[in-house]
Amino acid sequence: MSQIINVEHLNYRYPQQSESELTLHDVSFSVTAGEWVAIVGHNGSGKSTLAKNLNGLLAPVSGKITVDGQVLTEDTVWDIRRKIGMVFQNPDNQFVGATVADDVAFSLENQGVPRDEMLKRVADALAQVNMSAFATREPARLSGGQKQRVALAGMIAARPKILILDESTSMLDPEGRADVLATIRQMKADSDLTVLSITHDIDEAASANRVLVVNDGELVEEGTPAEIFQHGPALIKMGLDMPYPERLKAALKRQGVTVPATYLTEKGMADWLWQLISNK
Amino acid sequence: MMNKLIFGRFIPGDSVIHHMDPRAKLLLSFYFIGIIFIANNWPTYVLLFVFTLLAIKLSGVKWSFFINGVKPLIWLILFTVILQVLFSASGGHVYFHWGIITISQLGLINGVYIFCRFVLIIFMSTLLTLTTPPLELSDAIEYILMPLKVVHFPVYEVALMLSIALRFVPTLMDETEKIMNAQRARGVDFGEGNIFQQMRAVVPLLIPLFVSSFNRAEDLATAMEARGYQGGEGRSKFRILKWQARDTWATLAFAVLTAALIFLRA
Amino acid sequence: MAIDFKQVDFTYQPGTPFATQALTDINVTIPDGSYTALIGHTGSGKSTLLQHLNALLKPTAGTVTIGDRVITPETSNKDLKALRRHVGIVFQFPESQLFEETVEKDIAFGPQNFGVSEADALKTAAEMLDLVGLDRDLLQRSPFDLSGGQMRRVAIAGVLAMAPQVLVLDEPTAGLDPQGRLDMMEMFANLRYERHLTVVLVTHQMDDVANYADNVIVMDHGKVVKTGTPQDIFKDPDWLVAHHLGLPKTTAFAQQLMARGIQFDQMPLTEDQLAQALVQQLPVQQLGGATDDE
């Protein structure tokens, strides 16, 4: 499998920071095409800054970023932006179009896609996120979850190779969050999309193949979700919710119960408890 | 709060007027304001009213919306009318005279004409905004400004700015209400006290509103850049406007109206 | 201070073509000293009800009794201010209400509107900063230089500075990271005891309802559809799903266990309740306290 994103020794500081400070310090990692990688970290750890470096929205102090074989420079930045779709946190502040269909078409207009093809791609994309009935609606009449699904439809229509989700579900209610996550899973299943999701949400992190933990601008750990989730109560410090089985394990420990150290899924946890109780 | 305003609101509908090309509607509305000034006697004003009321009837929008459209402006209109009656050139029978103030027959008639002009202009522009979504209006403005591209006027950018501004109006209205509520909960009285107190009460509303608008603008710019926006050149258009037979008919109707006005005027 | 709703209706823009009824026949009491959770899916009427708690909105029919003040549709807007001092509302994303040059002045803004002298208000500001767990060094800083989490705490301090008897919280943890959410909820639980507050929490987080509330009001389509203790509300999972509401994580997990045949005398709502219930059923050799293979 080929590497679609490669980051080497990335350093970044905001213009207002002093010379000695760095928001990102010597970050290196790579992502394989078709992979789903979750980036976790507490607020202010630098994970959103990292995402914005990948498509040149922010320019690093030093380091090398390669996306789909192209090294990110001033000359390649617009090519690379076409390859990366990005959905941000606030559903309102990224809705450019005056109606749902207009918003979905925005990237296509920027690329100069002919109108006939645009109409088809917009209609298809809206159908995929289940928003066809809302095509002529104005954003003010949509819920947060619906707006984020429209943003995803915009990505489907623009056909990027990589999708970056920058806390895209964090401002939604549980229903909206579940809808958006289901849509992302569907998108992933329909194509060989590479997904990078920056999140605190345990369900979103659990969907990933790999989890990267960012703390104070450095990459401190990486592993499969099961490996990372074993940290139990320490996960909260890493900026991630605790998976329910870990919460229950901690509570059982407080009651003096011996619990397995390895990470158990909910089903695994239920199996384990049932086995103990039914064999008593 | 702002919902009381009728002017500038769009009422969805399925009438001929709703389906007209917004360019036709916009240009004809301006044209109408121009030809009002041809009218100078009763038959011409009656004709204009009949024409306007017919257009309103065709739109299927309730009369009450138009009456409500006039209400907020009624004092301004009456003030202008009274000035006109009292100070305009006199003629005909003089009913009252004191210093520079004269109430004459001609003055009164002029006052009524001015009142009619106001009402006609408000009715027609209310009809335009009630039957045309703001977005279509901004499209129409873009087309109308297109010739200015010759002098390097950034027509596409201005049109996009306009459409984004329109799209954020409801968002910012919600935001305003939210911040107002938060400050009222902290003991601010909006709209009470003397003018000085009222001005002070606006500060805790305006500053947060500015801060949040700037944050939104920054987020929006980032999102637009991430989605490949590099300015107006080389973009294709998703929404296009179509001139149809009904627009030609409407234009003809206005031409006939103009001819009739010229024929009937004194 | 108790708040009581009797046959309350509320209609937005009554008598206009845009009239919409948001609340219908609300009869509910928020008992003095309770920690009441107000739940319901988006658009169920929660925020409209919330704005009645300090008379930001007046009912279009019925009465709301806040402490000893009775609010009816006829109540004049003039003297509602005193009331607002007793019911503090922390709106969603409250950091957006900050506007002063310094943290100190912003916190002192509320009390001064209610006639507290500037000197007293500034003194209170410093105390409030302790209360929300921020360092006094921040007093002279601009609120706009702080991190998101700190700004939110300053905004909350600004509400607490009015010394309200009822504290209303509208999704106070939205947008915070897990550590921030946990700290915030613990802070409110402590404040409740230290300041003897009645707390009203509007939330989508059923775990917070299970962990902190002692009284729950469920809304749907502008009506109150259920009230009771968390135990009463969560014992019927199908009913909750029908009203677009979730379950606390523990209750959902307990359902999986019940499906396999494990039984509980009472539906567990928190992981500690579940752990206690399980301990009684687990074999003795499991009660060593250590972790396997460690």
Automatic annotation (TrEMBL), chain B:
Membrane-crossing segments per the record: 28-53, 73-96, 108-130, 150-169, 247-264
Membrane topology (UniProt): Multi-pass membrane protein
Subcellular location: Cell membrane
Keyword entries, A-Z: Cell membrane, Membrane, Transmembrane, Transmembrane helix, Transport
Pfam families, per database record: CbiQ
RNA-binding keyword on record: no
Keyword Membrane attributed: yes
UniProt function note: Transmembrane (T) component of an energy-coupling factor (ECF) ABC-transporter complex. Unlike classic ABC transporters this ECF transporter provides the energy necessary to transport a number of different substrates.
Sequence similarity: Belongs to the energy-coupling factor EcfT family.
Subunit structure: Forms a stable energy-coupling factor (ECF) transporter complex composed of 2 membrane-embedded substrate-binding proteins (S component), 2 ATP-binding proteins (A component) and 2 transmembrane proteins (T component).
Protein name according to UniProt: Energy-coupling factor transporter transmembrane protein EcfT
Organism in which the protein naturally occurs: Lactiplantibacillus daowaiensis
Automatic annotation (TrEMBL), chain C:
Subunit structure: Forms a stable energy-coupling factor (ECF) transporter complex composed of 2 membrane-embedded substrate-binding proteins (S component), 2 ATP-binding proteins (A component) and 2 transmembrane proteins (T component).
Subcellular location, record wording: Cell membrane
Protein name per its UniProtKB record: Energy-coupling factor transporter ATP-binding protein EcfA2
Similarity comment: Belongs to the ABC transporter superfamily. Energy-coupling factor EcfA family.
Organism phylogeny: Bacteria, Bacillati, Bacillota, Bacilli, Lactobacillales
Transmembrane segments: none
Signal peptide: none
PANTHER family registered for this protein in UniProt: ENERGY-COUPLING FACTOR TRANSPORTER ATP-BINDING PROTEIN ECFA2, HEAVY METAL TRANSPORTER
Naturally occurring in which organism (per UniProt): Lactiplantibacillus daowaiensis
